[in-house]
Structures are given as C-alpha cells and as structure tokens.
Design goal:
Blueprint: E1 16-20, H1 35-40, H2 42-48, E2 52-55, H3 83-95, E3 99-104, H4 114-122, E4 134-135, E5 153-155, E6 173-175, H5 190-205, E7 210-213, E8 235-236, H6 250-262, E9 269-272, E10 276-277, H7 279-282, E11 293-294, H8 297-301, H9 306-323, E12 328-330, H10 339-342, H11 364-380, E13 384-388, H12 409-413, H13 468-482, E14 488-491, E15 498-505, E16 508-515, E17 520-521, E18 526-531, E19 536-538, E20 541-544, E21 548-554
Helix pairs in contact: 5-6, 11-13
Bound molecules: alpha-D-glucopyranose.
C-alpha cells in the first residue's frame, strides 16, 4: 500500500474514537451522567485530541442492562436529558471537529418496548408475536444458554409481571440471548427490517456520523433452532458455528444499511460489535458494501506476549488489507476489565468478567506500565483506534465494589459467580477535591468510586507533563501530525520478546518498538521521541526495559 495523503480516505479510516459510557461520563444533575454532561466535556476531549466519540445507548430504557435494553429507539431517556440536549451535543461536537457515533441495538428490544408489550397482550399465534421468537412447548425450545448466564428462553407465565395479568397462564417461551428483559427480535420479519431503516434515518437526519452496531453477529438465527451448548461469548472459526451467531443472513441486513447510509453525505460509518474470531472471519462484516469497521476483539484478547501480539497484528493487517478496510484496535470498553488492571493480572488475555475483592488483585503498577506500553503500540498501527473513557487517566478497574451496589445482570444471572462489568463502569473522577470527585454537582455517583481515583482525577493530570493524560495527548498529537493511522506498516524481524515495526507515511518513517520483558537496545540511527517508561543508556545506545514502548524518528 502506498502512503496516502490524509485527505484521500474518509475520516473514519484512521480515526481515534473515544467511547463515552453516558451513565458514567459526567453529570450535570445527580447520580447518573447526562447528555449535557457530555457537552460540557467536549473541550476536554478536544484537548485530548480524539477525532470522534461513540456514545453507548442513551435511549429510554428501564436500564436492566444499562441502556442496552431499549424501550424507544427515537428518543432520549429522561435520566440523560432530552432530544434537544442530544441535538445541542451533536452540534457542539461538530463545532469542535468531533464526529458523533451512536449505539444501535438491533438484536433485542427492552421488554418495555411497545412491540413487546403488544406481543404479550396479543397472545400466542398473534402477528405481534412474530416480531420476536415465541415458541410453544412444555420444555424450552432449545438448550441455548444466555450470554449473561442461565437459559436463553423465558416462559411468559414465569415473568414477574405475569401474576394477575392476561398472560398469567401463557405457556409460550420467548428467546433472550441476554437478559430475560431483552427479548430477541425476529429479523425474518419485514416489519423489523423496515423499523430499523427508519431508526437509522431518524438519527442520520439529526446529524449523527454513524452507528456502533450492538451484537451485530446475532441478528439472524438458524431457523431450525438446533441445540447448541458450546461457548456463546466468542465465535471461533474452525469450531462448530453456534446457530444463534455469525449466520450468513446477517450480511444482507448490513448491505441494506450500507445503502441507507450512502443516501447521506459525509462518510457516515457502521461499526460492527461482533465477537467473531479469527479476524479473517470478522472481515466478512466489512466487505465493501457492508459495514465499514469491526472491533478487533482478537487484539484485545491476545495475551501480553510479544510473539502472540506480533502474530495478531500481522494477521489483522493482512486480512483487513485484503478486503480494503482499515484494521481497528481496541484494548478497553464497558464490557471488559480495564486494561490497566487486566494487564496486571498473572494471566493476561481477555480476562475475567469482573474482579471481586476476594480474587487475585491486579498489580497496579505493572498493569499501568503495560497498559501504557500497549496503548503506545496500538496507536502506532494503521487503521482506527478506540479509547474507552478514563483510560487516558490510567484508571484501574474498581475491584472492591460491594455486591449490594452491583447492577450488571451477569452478576445476578450467574448467581454471583461472576462479578460482572460494573467495575469498569464506575463514574469518572473529574476533580480530586469535590464530592464524587466532581462527577456530579449533587456529589452523587451511581457506583462508588475507589479512593485511588482521587489522585488520578482529570484536574490532577490535565496540563501536567508527567501525567498519563499528557502521555495520551502527546501520542494522539504525533499520530495525527505524522499520519500514522494511514501508515504503511512493516513488522521488523526482532527477538522473541520484542515487537518492532516501521510505519512509512507521507510525512516520513517512524519506528515503533515494544519490549515485553528483559531489555532491548534500540538500533542505531533512530532517535526516541515518545516513550511509555523511563529508558536507559548503555555505551551510547538507548535501552528499553520490560513493558516499554517507544516511537522513534530517523536521526
Ligand atoms: C453488547 C454490549 C453489552 C450488552 C450486550 C447486550 O455486547 O456491548 O454491554 O450487555 O451487547 O446488548
């Protein structure tokens, strides 16, 4: 691939996209974050240097899965604000050259969605039930497990709202691949397809720049509903393909959406959340007439090991290159243990589903050191990179939340076996000396923040050259100035404990090197301009220590 000028590709091709989890980003009100809170921090994000934000769901929702249970796709939950607040936020972001991606949740609705209420009321055999997966039977129709734990089928009469209702004795089952409050939609029904076209248009008309598509690999199920008792958290190539994930039929839906987006000016983008491995299988979601990007969870799940990371990077660049789409890179999000903690565990990789106080505790210093090295590696790679709110402050996971405050349905559905995702969703610390570290004017926060976050608050870091925030800011600035996101990246031969590569761009040549353990001497002729940890000198050569990344330019 030739180095290209920054303007020859659409913006998303190499964008750095910052994930906002609206419940926990910033509040202008009480314990839960608000849209106005997002608007109030756009200057902070501009200072950080991101190109776009992706906002997790902000729609009306009973919040049984933190908003991924949508009751109305074309409005804003009053807890977060109003449509007018959303319009103002989108406009304010655009004024600052920040694009706005929102979350689309097409696999399931909330059980409080109008359609599901109609389906319950209309009863078995009704047209209203055909929008979901209702089935008869004395036993659940299949042995499928919910991704959140427990069975994937719920009997209508077992619902908490059944007693005394018209469906009190209704024996039908409905499918819920996630919580029982998240019934799966039936995408074979044309009404479902038309509805989502209209939702896309509603938000495109309001000026959003794209959609992150939740559970993109789940929309279509094998209609024969065969049993499947294997792993449902990630679809692995080569093994038996689960009948509820990664079915051929999903692709025709994305082609249809691609066509809808093409009606609009300005390079709107579709991003697939698809837990599909290996990357070659994932690239089917980003063929030229489908989505534009897909999260590279294989990268996130790769253990902290030079040989394996090198392999993942190589494979990702190869396979995405083959379909002519940029690779993506991500280390943290609202579903996994924050990478500053995950990488401080004795076993690295995708990590556990949350950490209890009684579990092995991450080594905070080691975790942060590795997290910075991993981030610096990621930001040198061509393609698009995703940052999860708070990682720029080096925030660790909250690993001692009391069970009473947990909200993640995975904690409840695994009967407390898994801590769940609350520990990575704790409201951000903005100022060290205010109640709730400045998260809300009322001093409330829907989850308690760990005391170690005080010194990590944004006001302790912004403008301080030795902070993690300044580290991110410097990398983002250089990445943009050098055009690394569009670089032609070549992995170099290096010892087994090192990943090294050269990025060639229209502005020059840049060396990335990460030393995973032991030490490594930088080749002569290169001069370090950014490093994730202190370096040493030996006989005039620069030496990297363990868990250290550098970027260097030609002398
Ligand atoms: C996705 C979301 C996750 C949510 C699930 C069900 O994986 O990222 O937070 O719980 O889908 O919507």
């Amino acid at each position: 691939m030739q180095a290209q000028s920054p303007n020859s590709y659409p913006w998303w091709h190499s964008a750095v996209i910052y994930q906002i989890y609206p419940r926990s980003f910033a509040s202008t009100d009480g314990a839960i974050g608000t849209i106005a809170g997002i608007t109030s921090k756009l200057d902070y994000l501009r200072t950080l240097g991101v190109d776009a934000i992706w906002i997790s769901p902000f729609y009306p929702s009973p919040q049984h899965d933190a908003g991924y249970d949508v009751a109305d796709y074309t409005d804003i939950d009053p807890r977060f604000g109003t449509l007018a607040d959303a319009d103002a936020m989108i406009a304010a972001a655009h004024e600052r050259d920040i694009k706005v991606i929102i979350d689309l949740v097409p696999n399931h609705t909330s059980d409080e969605h109008r359609w599901f209420r109609e389906a319950l009321a209309a009863g078995p055999g009704s047209r209203a039930r055909e929008r979901y997966w209702f089935r008869d039977g004395t036993q659940p129709p299949t042995d499928w497990r919910s991704v959140f734990g427990g069975p994937a089928w719920t009997r209508v009469c077992d619902r908490p709202d059944a007693a005394g209702s018209p469906w009190e004795n209704d024996q039908q089952w409905y499918l819920n691949l996630f919580d029982s409050t998240q019934p799966d939609l039936n995408w074979n029904n044309p009404q479902v397809r038309d509805y989502f076209d209209s939702i896309l248009r509603f938000w495109l008309d309001r000026g959003v720049d794209g959609f992150r598509v939740d559970v993109a690999h789940g929309l279509v199920k094998d209609p024969a509903l065969p049993n499947f008792s294997g792993d449902v958290s990630m679809v692995h190539g080569g093994t038996e393909r689960p009948p509820m994930f990664d079915q051929e039929g999903v692709h025709e839906i994305f082609r249809r959406w691609n066509a809808v987006l093409s009606e609009y000016p300005g390079d709107r983008v579709l991003v697939a959340e698809a837990w599909v491995d290996p990357p070659s299988r994932l690239t089917r979601y980003v063929r030229p007439d489908e989505m534009h990007q897909a999260f590279n969870f294989t990268f996130l799940a790769t253990p902290w090991n030079a040989i394996q990371i090198r392999e993942t990077v190589k494979e990702s660049l190869d396979v995405f290159g083959q379909v002519g789409r940029p690779a993506t890179w991500v280390l943290s999000n609202h579903d996994v243990v924050r990478h500053a903690s995950r990488l401080g565990l004795s076993v690295t990789g995708k990590g556990p589903n949350g950490i209890f106080a009684s579990d092995e505790q991450p080594d905070a210093q080691l975790g942060l050191r590795r997290a910075k090295a991993a981030t610096q590696l990621m930001l040198a790679l061509p393609g698009s990179a995703y940052i999860y709110q708070g990682e720029e402050l080096g925030l660790p996971e909250h690993t001692s939340l009391p069970d009473e405050v947990r909200e993640d349905p995975t904690f409840f559905r695994t009967r407390g076996e898994q801590a769940g995702r609350d520990g990575c969703r704790v409201p951000l610390p903005w100022s060290a000396d205010e109640p709730a570290y400045g998260f809300s004017p009322s001093g409330e926060s829907w989850l308690p923040q760990p005391p170690v976050w005080r010194e990590l608050a944004a006001d302790q870091q912004v403008g301080r050259p030795d902070s993690t925030f300044a580290f991110y800011q410097d990398l983002l600035l250089r990445r943009k100035a050098w055009n690394l996101g569009e670089g032609d990246f070549e992995l170099l031969d290096s010892p087994d404990h090192v990943v090294a590569g050269i990025s060639r761009t229209d502005t020059g040549e840049y060396l990335l090197a990460t030393c995973f353990d032991g030490t490594w001497e930088l080749p002569s002729g290169w001069s370090v301009v950014a490093h994730s940890a202190e370096l040493s000198k030996e006989n005039n050569a620069t030496v990297l220590g363990p868990d250290t990344s550098v970027w260097a330019t030609r002398m």
